[in-house]
Amino acid sequence: MRRFFLFLVFCLYFVPASAQVNRDFMNKAQRKSYCAKLKAQGVRGIIKSEYASEKGLKSDQPVNYTVLWLSESGQPLKVAKYDPYRVMTEYETFHYDDQGKLKEKNYYEPDGSLSWKETFYYDAAGELIEAVEYTADGALDARKLNVFNDQGFLYKTRELNPDDELTFFRIARFNDDGSPVYITLRHAKGFTMSSEKIKYDANGLPEEKVIAVGLRGEPIREKYEHDNHGLIETIREFRGNKVKSLIKYRYFAQTFESHLRRNAFQKVRTSFSNVEKESAQLYVQKASFPGGDKALKNYLNAHVKYPDEETKQGVVEVKFEVKSNGKIRRIEIHRGISETLDGMAEELIKDMPEWVPARETDGKTVDSEVIVPVPFLK
């Protein structure tokens, strides 16, 4: 089973201390802050060059490259990986909905054939709750579930195999501002596979990460350097006191594409036109739960009861019509998990209070369709 590395992502694909597990655990404020930094500098592309030694860095002889294309709003459009000769070895594309949430990520071979893909599901407040991995032929490969605490921080992830059996889980601890400081990866049987400790500087930027693998493995230490804008510049990986590898980040604005051409990076076969957004009927005011998304999330948290006998977990998506008078009609399962959980989700929607209906430009209330995600997590 492949590891899940991209569940937050949006413009966080290259966030420093989140190069491995803890990228998942960045909170909304941290995500927005990093995106704002990229947007403020007009960054449209990032090149990450990895070196085997300080000597390799000085002579500019990387062992591989990773290239990230960004939209004007700071969202990743695609990522490509290259060997030292700038020949592409694989690439990925990102697909968003009309609200800018990442809905699908596709992984490709250099020839453009699909390797595998991920789809993403969110709760009523827009937090990523579930990610599902599929093989190229559409078979379920693995799932990942995110669990949030009362402060709204993602503190636990669960990874499941195709039979919905737990394989691994991660648990995070945070400092007072919500930054992850300690993360453990554990096997389903409970033993610790690895742990990470993250330190921050006075500005709240990641400064050092220590990774311990197993009980007797030599710890890996990563040191981070930032530029004057707070963007990651260099990561050095140490084993003991010896540098084992280095990663250098370079940020580009309008000169990005010309730089790639001048340096003969192999062109990615797909175009940005493949990164589509879901179409949606436009309203001056969309149909909403009384009190808004936060009230809807609180309502679901208060009324969703996970049955003891159930083994499935995840997000059930319920589609229904909100009439012009706010009444709920035509309830159906848009994305189901199990007969029991699907039925519970339908009943929960049936018992909801009337919604605030959608309005068109002339102020008239109209019928509209809504999809509500109902999370069922242990």
Model description:
Keywords: Signal. Pfam families: TonB_C. This protein has helices at residues 28-40, 54-58, 256-262, 293-303, 339-350, and strands at residues 45-51, 64-70, 76-82, 88-96, 102-108, 114-122, 128-135, 140-148, 154-160, 166-174, 180-187, 192-200, 206-213, 220-226, 232-239, 242-252, 314-322, 328-335, 358-359, 365-366, 368-376. It has two domains: 10-274, Porin (Beta Barrel), CATH 2.40.160; 293-376, Fusion Protein Consisting Of Minor Coat Protein, Glycine Rich Linker, Tola, And A His Tag, Chain: A, Domain 2 (2-Layer Sandwich). A hairpin with a 5-residue loop joins strand 6 (114-122) and strand 7. The chain has five helices and 21 strands. The chain has 378 residues and is mostly beta strands. The strands form three sheets. A 16-stranded antiparallel barrel has the order 1-2-3-4-5-6-7-8-9-10-11-12-13-14-15-16.
